[in-house]
Design a protein that fits this description.
about 250 residues; alpha+beta; 3-stranded antiparallel beta sheet; 3 helices; about 30% helix; elongated
Length: about 250
């Protein structure tokens, strides 16, 4: 939010602690529901109140007296070169080096190498000092720059016009043949069904009494036990059998 009033950096001989994220403009100073200003600071993780004040400046002075006046941090003494490498500095990094971060829990430094690169083989991503981490970052960056770039694959030369036409014709013919094969596969079940249906119809016609394939052979008829009529041929021993089948109904 916007500041509640003009902010001063020094009052009563004390350098005040400023804060751009606080509406009062001062670190450790908040507004009270009574409209007054309430400074407080932390002691061993607990908030300790310093009272209520009519102005934010007076509350900021009380805060500075409790915790000590503000002292700007000394500029980092950054090494620009180490181990024969030029280090990558960064004003936006708390360590002062690009790609180098401080691990709060372990107190050591880690490296986020440039995109598409890795730390040199066998290098553990944990360093005692920020300079050592910055050296590892610089080595990864220099290795990426010095890596040979693969030459693009040479394109095949274009075919002469005649060969290009032949290749195009063959491609069209192969596509047509593939289409015909697929069409034949689709038609095969239909033809098979038609063939089976025709066979069934011919078989049913052959079984009818007036069909084309009537019985002409009478060898399968049972032998008649009656004697042959006069003038008929008699068998050689035993009662004569009817051998004239002219009186049988003609088949077919």
């Amino acid at each position: 939010g916007c500041m509640l009033g003009a902010v001063v950096t020094k009052a009563e001989g004390l350098q005040l602690h400023l804060s751009s994220s606080n509406r009062t403009g001062y670190k450790g100073v908040t507004t009270h529901h009574t409209g007054r200003f309430h400074p407080q600071h932390q002691v061993r993780g607990r908030h300790v109140s310093l009272g209520l004040f009519d102005t934010a400046v007076a509350a900021a002075v009380a805060y500075a007296r409790a915790v000590g006046e503000y002292r700007p941090p000394a500029p980092l003494a950054l090494a620009t070169e180490a181990e024969g490498l030029r280090l990558h500095l960064s004003s936006s990094s708390s360590t002062g080096y690009r790609g180098v971060f401080h691990h709060a829990r372990s107190g050591r430094f880690q490296v986020h190498p440039p995109r598409g690169t890795l730390l040199p083989g066998g290098t553990r991503n944990s360093f005692e000092t920020a300079v050592e981490a910055a050296v590892a970052y610089a080595r990864a960056a220099s290795a990426a720059i010095s890596a040979p770039v693969a030459a693009p694959a040479a394109e095949a030369p274009p075919l002469p016009p005649k060969r290009a036409r032949v290749a195009s014709t063959r491609a069209i013919e192969s596509l047509a043949a593939a289409g015909a094969a697929r069409a034949a596969l689709r038609e095969r079940p239909r033809r098979s069904h038609a063939t089976q249906e025709g066979a069934r119809r011919r078989q049913s016609r052959s079984r009818r009494p007036g069909g084309a394939s009537a019985f002409a052979d009478v060898s399968h008829f049972p032998k008649m036990g009656s004697e042959a009529p006069a003038g008929g041929a008699s068998g050689s021993g035993g009662a004569g059998l009817i051998t004239d089948v002219s009186h049988f109904p003609k088949m077919g």
